[in-house]
Amino acid sequence: MFCLLAIIIGYLIGSLSPSYIFGRLLKNIDIREHGDGNAGTVNTYKVLGFVPAFFTALIDVSKGLLSMFIAKKLGASPICYSLAGLSAIGGHVFPFYLKFKGGQGVATAVGMLLYYLFLILKNGWLTISDLLILTIVVISFSYITRKGEMVGLVVLPLFGVFIFLNSPLDRITVFLGIIIIYIIFIALLNLTKTGFLKLNLDSDTGKHYIPWRLLIRPAAILLVYFHLTQEKKTSLYLVGGVTLFFLLIDTVRLIYSKFNVLLFKTREIFKSKEYKKFSSITLFLIACFLSFLLFERNIASLAVTFIIFGDFFSKYFGMRFGRNKIFEKTLEGSIAFFNACLVGGYVLFHFINFSFSIFIIGALVATMVEILPFGLDDNFSVSIVSGSIMYILKNLFG
User: Fold this and answer.
1) Are residues 84 and 133 in the same domain?
2) How far apart are CA 256 and CA 247, in angstroms?
3) How distant is the alpha carbon of residue 255 from its chain centre?
4) Which of 44, 191, 208, 246 has its CA 20 to 30 A from that of 98?
């Protein structure tokens, strides 16, 4: 009974729409019919100004917390008062007196996110290094994208991964996960509507873009997983077999021009610059095989992880947000590359035993190899060079 009452109270508190009320009081308008049509803080600022927007933000952020506080005082269980907080988000999005058309509930969700973050920190489920990595990523992608929602799309999944790796599965982490997923969903919805996620294919860096090749790259982390969990010989057979398959296709098409022309007609398999060269897929797989063959397991896994996520992030963020050229790359893409190396390697650190300082040097080396025009495809050179440097440093100082 208390649980149902707590949920109802949460919904009623959440349905209070300060932006709508301020619109009626100050300008006698329905704020949902002005600006971007959203009954939230940003639209309140655009339509009504700073002061109404400030109080809108303050009230909206507090609604979930107030609902949880009242539910707790009524004697509701921890799960019930957490549900009351979620109910406040529902009330904000679907207020009954506004024909169930309210705001997006992000501010209310953020208030609850901060509450759960406080509990996470209080329980020691985030380390200093976790917070440092998150801070670096926030600063870096704030500079790169200059868009809060885009930063959230990068940081919140990472935050969720850290919580998953360090925390037990209980009420706090489950409800925090729900909040994170909801905020990410709203951010994706908004960015998709505005076309902000689209790549600028007219730029020099985007003219050879093939969507499936960019999107499939993170799946290569399965090769690293296989290498870490299986015997070295077994992983070499797997990677070697895949590499041989792509190498054979490239060799045949480069020898037989008619076959090469046929493959390039679709423009959906190879980039135009690969017409007379081995594809970057083949070069990546060769480097992956050589890394697994030559380096110890931990070094090989880190080196290959660098190029898997570094290449994905540098291509997307370089094409979409690149503003400042560095050789043939962009500063923004290269910053994204380093952050991807940093994050990918740091997550991997939860499963391997390796020197943190050597890992950081390896990530920096991988980034420099990606930036500098050595004449070698970075899909090949990044893992080989960074792996070699980490191997040398480990044997000198490890």
Assistant:
1) no
2) 14
3) 41
4) 191
